[in-house]
Design a protein that fits this description.
The chain is mostly helical. The protein has one domain. The protein is about 75% helix and about 0% strand. The protein has six helices and no strands. The protein is globular and about 35 Å long.
């Protein structure tokens, strides 16, 4: 069973994936990502910055190697801790720049199916 910290880490990774999936990084998306991180009750062994940095590298790799679905599948058990918050966070990031990219919609739809 996933813990709150497992969920926090998975939610942060999901947010980074949603933020990077369309290849366009906008200031309002970055600000929202920072806000999401600031709101987490972080109790991890690793700092939030370390987890973010590793997640950025992992997300870049998943996108470039066309393994996004596998990356998301690995997050699924922890995201099920609070499905609604995971879906709300993904939707908020998808809509944050006022433009819903096809890649973002596909990823969100996949997340809905998984959860």
């Amino acid at each position: 069973m996933a813990t709150q910290q497992d969920f926090n880490e998975a939610l942060l990774k999901l947010a980074i994936l949603m933020y990077r999936i369309d290849g366009k990084i906008r200031l309002n998306e970055q600000e929202l990502l920072d806000e999401i991180g600031d709101q987490l009750d972080w109790q991890g062994v690793n700092s939030i910055t370390a987890v973010q940095n590793q997640a950025l590298a992992d997300v870049r790799q998943a996108i470039s190697s066309n393994q996004v679905e596998g990356y998301l599948t690995n997050l699924k058990p922890a995201l099920q801790f609070d499905k609604q918050q995971a879906l709300d966070t993904a939707r908020e990031l998808m809509q944050s720049d006022g433009e819903e990219a096809q890649q973002e919609r596909r990823l969100y739809d996949l997340l809905v199916q998984m959860l």
